Amino acid sequence: MSQIFPNAVTSVSKAPALVFLISTEHTGWCEQLAQEGYSVFQVAYPSSSLASLSQAIGAAGEYIKAHGGDWAIVSYGVLQDDGMIIPNLVARAGVQRLKALSHFNPLSEESAPLLVRDCEGRYIPTVLHLASVQEKLHASLSLLTTPDSLLYELTPSDHLPIAVFTYPMVSASPPFPFSTKAPALVKAGESFSVDPYVRSAVSLSYSRTLELLRRQLGPHFDLERLWEMHTYYSDMIYFDPAETMSTMVKAPYVNHVPTLTGGIGYEDLARFYKASFPISSTDYVTPPDTEIITVSRTVGADRIIDEMILKGTHTTEIDYLLPGINPTGKTFEIALVGVVAFRGDKLTFEHIYWDQASLLVQLGLLDATSLPVAGVEVAHKVLDPFGLPSNKLLQRLVMTSAIPLQDRSRDHEQRGDFGLDAPSGLEQRVASPNSPTSLARSSSLSRRLSAATAAGTDRKDPFYATPEEDRLSYMDETFRPYADEPFKVRSTPYNDKGDESLVRNAAVYGGSNSYQDLEFAEAYDSSRAQPVAEKASPLNRFLSDGKYPLEQRIEDKKRGIGRQKYPFLVWALTITMVGVFIWELVLNSREQGTPVSFKPVVNPMLGPSQSALINLGARFPPCMKDVPEVPVTTNMACMNDTANPPDRLCTIRELCGHGEFNGGEPNQWWRFITPIFLHAGFIHIILNMLAQLTAVAQIEREMGSGGFFILYFAAGIFGNVLGGNFSLVGVPSLGASGAIFGTIAVTWVDLFAHWKYHYRPVRRLIFMTIELVIGVAMGYIPYIDNFVPEAHLGGFAMGLLVGTTFYPVISTTRRHKIIMWCFRFTAIPLAVILYVVLVRNFYTSNPYAACSGCRYLSCFPTSSNNHCQGTGLTTFTTTNTN
């Protein structure tokens, strides 16, 4: 009897094949591996008859041949009498594409039937999971677990082909994984008792098997990218419950171990996320100043372990961290560890651990003076492991620190701690308080305490040593002396400014540009906190190379960490634009009596009148050059007119203002620039500022303010130049949207230049295309021109050229670097040529001659606008009554 479990991971197009030798009652493990991205063919084993078993083996062989790809064997409890089942299966399916074997509790005393050699005589990588009672099989296999026993040489990149793991206190028959359900079948709220030894053995053996399968067959999932996407959607800034849950399996769970908060199952966990992470301007669960610093990260076959520091201010009731505790207003900084497991390309569970005692001490909720706990020093010790002392809570070691090491050794010998006659650890622990051993220890402790007191080594600070202690020899936690390496202890309180060197490991935007690899770091030295890349020349920084490690640049790219922490230029531009908009409202209120123009026509953007916007500096060709169709003597509604039709008329010369051309021809060229700072109304500026403070700000962080300044104004001005050429000459235009879309164009450069570093790049491309189309469509709103504000095609086009030149691109290959530089050398002259050609064309008598159909890009043809013919301006012939 056989059964096929198809690959359940949609992102895996060609799944490797597995042949499972497992009983029909435990096919949940087949479903488990199918959800890991494998196509599983189950052979029912043990079988009711030899004939049916042979038939199933033959069917498995045909399946593997039809599959045509790499495959592996996973068996459970192969019997001694069925020793030829593995060779028969290999003979039917072929050894050429066999990449791995995994055996759980094979009931055989010989290893030969369980191992397979390839065509070159090398062992196929095999992992065996045995109960500790299977001693004979373990002994026969142990001879093959060293390089010398293989009779052939391994290359430096080869793993040992045979790996044997034994598990205590578990059964050999039936195989111990059968004592519990496969995780893929466990339902929310389902409870069943499993021996902790069995649970440990099942979890470890599964991860070890999966590691072998991933290494030899694939599929390979970028667990870090999957984890970053999950944290991105669950981040307190970008929180999206639906997207967060879309990164998880159908029955996930999250367990915050110290507080037992989290969720079990899809609905329960989704409810927890919605309830525990609501974000609005007035409703915070996570304090707004919360920071997470990743100290280290370990990535395995099916899980990630992050060691982190969580810091913030207790200004809110943090349900998942401190349920039921009202805000204290105090700062906290705690060590935190997250264990994150994956099944295929989905997250299956999170175990989050932190030092709750340290947190309570820092918030004043727990007295540390009478308990072996510490406050913020716990987190500081994690960040600065070599700079802060150990064992300060270990009073025995504290009191013996003033005794020379030789005396300590003699004291140990007198107490019988060393030597063959010393009592065992268990005997020492159960010794009576009045026993000779205990009395001797007490007496010795008293002598050393007296000596320490006499020497003046009594400590006022429980965590920082005195200068005298700095000169003492040091003994580590295992009591091994380092007499030639004096222990350097800080004599001043901990200074967390040095933490800036760790921010590059944080999965948040705006991290510092400093980095230190804590996995292999030497003792922390603040003078070395800045990496070499910080000293790179401006040219190297422009080339985005310098001496900055490529791997770290790729990691920063995935995390959204750029060249600088804060978008200073975006902030300055935003403040300026808001100030200018306030002046627009003041001017319109002074002229019409209301900041928002409702007469003679309503401004759909809820802002000043058209005449006021022209006077303030909107792009309006009749004010910039001589337009035969719209001479400066043409009458329009004055700024203070509120009648319909208008009864107060002013000439264009008067509306243009600013000296009225000093009696000469229109020459206000600066209207290519000023529209960037103007907005048509509240709706217009709110939409632009939202985009500017989010997406545009991130572009400045990634590019740096210098390159961003060139990009922003090059795109904004070019949008006005292009619009001045081909939009209707009688329609004013204004807004920062051209510049904004120029920066949005950089995201397209980023997407195509770093395609493989983006999460689901095809889906991202589709969404970006939809956003661009919507932005172009919004350009048909009155007062907005597709070439300049809102979805401005001109700004977008110039943004592509300037972004290609100035955006820092990571090139991992020489070919990629050459392609990028070819684009750059092409983009620079093309941008200059476009500027020169269009400015010259604008000052000709008929710019439309260069592109007669371009006017339709900013005008939707209808009967009301004469199908985009003419000037687009309504003129009046009555006299000026202003």
Automatic annotation (TrEMBL):
<dbReference type="InterPro" id="IPR002610">
    <property type="entry name" value="Peptidase_S54_rhomboid-like"/>
</dbReference>
<feature type="transmembrane region" description="Helical">
    <location>
        <begin position="734"/>
        <end position="753"/>
    </location>
</feature>
<feature type="transmembrane region" description="Helical">
    <location>
        <begin position="765"/>
        <end position="785"/>
    </location>
</feature>
<feature type="domain" description="Peptidase S54 rhomboid">
    <location>
        <begin position="667"/>
        <end position="807"/>
    </location>
</feature>
<keyword id="KW-0812">Transmembrane</keyword>
<feature type="transmembrane region" description="Helical">
    <location>
        <begin position="822"/>
        <end position="843"/>
    </location>
</feature>
<comment type="similarity">
    <text>Belongs to the peptidase S54 family.</text>
</comment>
<feature type="compositionally biased region" description="Low complexity">
    <location>
        <begin position="437"/>
        <end position="455"/>
    </location>
</feature>
<feature type="transmembrane region" description="Helical">
    <location>
        <begin position="791"/>
        <end position="810"/>
    </location>
</feature>
<dbReference type="GO" id="GO:0006508">
    <property type="term" value="P:proteolysis"/>
</dbReference>
<dbReference type="Pfam" id="PF01694">
    <property type="entry name" value="Rhomboid"/>
</dbReference>
<dbReference type="InterPro" id="IPR035952">
    <property type="entry name" value="Rhomboid-like_sf"/>
</dbReference>
<dbReference type="GO" id="GO:0004252">
    <property type="term" value="F:serine-type endopeptidase activity"/>
</dbReference>
<keyword id="KW-0378">Hydrolase</keyword>
<dbReference type="GO" id="GO:0016020">
    <property type="term" value="C:membrane"/>
</dbReference>
<feature type="compositionally biased region" description="Basic and acidic residues">
    <location>
        <begin position="457"/>
        <end position="468"/>
    </location>
</feature>
<feature type="compositionally biased region" description="Basic and acidic residues">
    <location>
        <begin position="407"/>
        <end position="418"/>
    </location>
</feature>
<dbReference type="InterPro" id="IPR022764">
    <property type="entry name" value="Peptidase_S54_rhomboid_dom"/>
</dbReference>
<keyword id="KW-1133">Transmembrane helix</keyword>
<feature type="transmembrane region" description="Helical">
    <location>
        <begin position="709"/>
        <end position="728"/>
    </location>
</feature>
<feature type="transmembrane region" description="Helical">
    <location>
        <begin position="676"/>
        <end position="697"/>
    </location>
</feature>
<protein>
    <recommendedName>
        <fullName>Rhomboid-type serine protease</fullName>
        <ecNumber>3.4.21.105</ecNumber>
    </recommendedName>
</protein>
<comment type="function">
    <text>Serine protease involved in intramembrane proteolysis.</text>
</comment>
<keyword id="KW-0645">Protease</keyword>
<keyword id="KW-0720">Serine protease</keyword>
<feature type="transmembrane region" description="Helical">
    <location>
        <begin position="566"/>
        <end position="586"/>
    </location>
</feature>
<feature type="region of interest" description="Disordered">
    <location>
        <begin position="405"/>
        <end position="468"/>
    </location>
</feature>
<keyword id="KW-0472">Membrane</keyword>
<dbReference type="InterPro" id="IPR032710">
    <property type="entry name" value="NTF2-like_dom_sf"/>
</dbReference>
